[in-house]
């Protein structure tokens, strides 16, 4: 009988809680490292984000995407230098061999004054909704993501044998973007149609909140040659390695192909948080590297390609 592998689940609370013994913290780091080496993905519990905060964030998705199309279009990311704002269904193509993605999205990041606007950096485009209905809950969730993202990066760095001080430049003024997502029911019979086509993520790490019970995420597992379904369970976040950390770790941390097919039969909401890093940062493990490619150069190339935008 063939045993189908599953993306492992790890309780990261021993690392996040400072009063836990050093041995348990070290054991947690080793488990995270091993799973990221093989899968590039892990399911995380003990992350410290209140259930109420998670539920409010998912409710914000529905509130936003239920707005009339015309109101959403006024917030298009294509009209925003910082690329904050709304994307229509079909505007992003994550897999060039597939049809345009059947999802709509909305980017939100750290607030930056208009005088400092640049790629993925600037003021947000907020929908005209009551503070307690959208802006407040989204901002609260975002702060949790900043804290958790930095802790996860620390674990990954320690796993490679480095001191966490190497993160100082990468995490000084990091670009960390939430993307609210709505996947309509999957009705197409075309095998080239996905909610999100097969792709790897662009940046350092991604932290994903899924609507409980609305499954759809699939992760490619190279050893078995198949696609592993990753369930959407309450209070479980999905963490995955992006292309930057894959490259910077010389391929030891695996940036894994994944895709979404909304098999729920209903609307599906999720919220990935992309922790890219400080846009001016370069490889923290090889500060003298000849290429000197910055986070911004790497992310801009992949981002613009997926939306059919020309780099500016």
Note the gap between the termini. Answer: 54 Å
- State the order of secondary-structure elements, H for helix, E for strand: EHHEHHEEHEEEEEEHEEH
Q: What is the spatial order of strands in the main beta sheet?
A: 1-2-10-7-12-5-4-3
Q: How many strands?
A: 12
Integer tally of domains: 1
The fraction of residues assigned to DSSP E strands is 15-25%
The low-confidence runs, each spanning 5 or more residues with pLDDT under 50, are: none
Which CATH-level-2 architecture?
Sandwich
Rg from C-alpha positions? Answer: 19 Å
Family: Belongs to the iron/ascorbate-dependent oxidoreductase family.
GO molecular function: metal ion binding; oxidoreductase activity
Pfam families: 2OG-FeII_Oxy, DIOX_N
Domain Fe2OG dioxygenase: 171-277
Characterization of this structure:
Residues 171-277 form the Fe2OG dioxygenase domain. This is Fe2OG dioxygenase domain-containing protein. One of its GO terms (biological process) is small molecule biosynthetic process. This protein is α+β, with helices and mostly antiparallel strands and 312 residues long. It has a single domain (9-167, 178-274), classed as B-lactam Antibiotic, Isopenicillin N Synthase, Chain (Jelly Rolls). It is built from seven helices and twelve strands. The chain has helices at residues 13-16, 22-38, 51-65, 69-73, 135-159, 243-248, 295-307, and strands at residues 9-11, 41-45, 85-87, 104-108, 175-183, 196-199, 205-210, 217-221, 226-229, 237-241, 258-260, 268-277. The strands form two sheets. Strands 1-2-10-7-12-5-4-3 form an eight-stranded mixed sheet. Strands 6-11-8-9 form a four-stranded antiparallel sheet, with no helix packed on it. β8 and β9 (226-229) form a beta hairpin. α2 (22-38) packs across α5 and α3 packs across α5 (135-159). The radius of gyration is 19 Å and the shape is globular. The relative contact order is 0.18. The mean pLDDT is 93.
């Amino acid at each position: 009988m063939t045993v189908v592998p599953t993306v492992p689940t790890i309780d990261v609370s021993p690392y996040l809680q400072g009063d836990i013994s050093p041995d348990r913290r070290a054991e947690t780091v080793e488990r995270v490292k091993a799973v990221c080496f093989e899968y590039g993905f892990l399911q995380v519990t003990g992350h410290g984000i209140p259930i109420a905060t998670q539920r409010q964030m998912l409710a914000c998705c529905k509130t936003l995407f239920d707005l009339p199309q015309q109101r959403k279009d006024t917030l298009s990311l294509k009209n925003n230098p910082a690329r904050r704002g709304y994307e229509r269904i079909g505007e992003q193509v994550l897999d060039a061999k597939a049809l345009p993605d059947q999802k709509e999205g909305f980017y939100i990041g750290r607030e930056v004054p208009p005088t400092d606007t640049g790629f993925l950096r600037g003021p947000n485009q907020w929908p005209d909704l009551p503070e307690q209905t959208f802006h407040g809950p989204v901002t609260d969730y975002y702060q949790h993501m900043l804290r958790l993202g930095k802790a996860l990066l620390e674990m990954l760095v320690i796993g490679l044998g480095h001191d966490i001080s190497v993160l100082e430049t990468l995490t000084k003024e990091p670009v960390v973007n939430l993307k609210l997502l709505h996947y309509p029911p999957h009705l197409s019979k075309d095998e080239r149609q996905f909610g999100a086509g097969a792709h790897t993520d662009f940046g350092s790490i991604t932290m994903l909140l899924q609507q409980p019970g609305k499954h759809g995420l699939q992760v490619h597992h190279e050893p078995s040659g198949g696609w592993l379904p990753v369930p959407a369970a309450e209070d479980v976040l999905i963490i995955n390695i992006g292309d930057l950390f894959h490259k910077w770790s010389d391929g030891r941390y695996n940036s894994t192909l994944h895709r979404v097919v909304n098999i729920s039969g209903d609307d599906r909401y999720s919220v990935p948080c992309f922790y890219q890093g400080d846009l001016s940062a370069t490889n923290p493990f090889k500060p003298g590297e000849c290429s000197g490619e910055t986070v911004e150069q790497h992310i801009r190339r992949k981002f613009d390609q997926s939306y059919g935008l020309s780099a500016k």
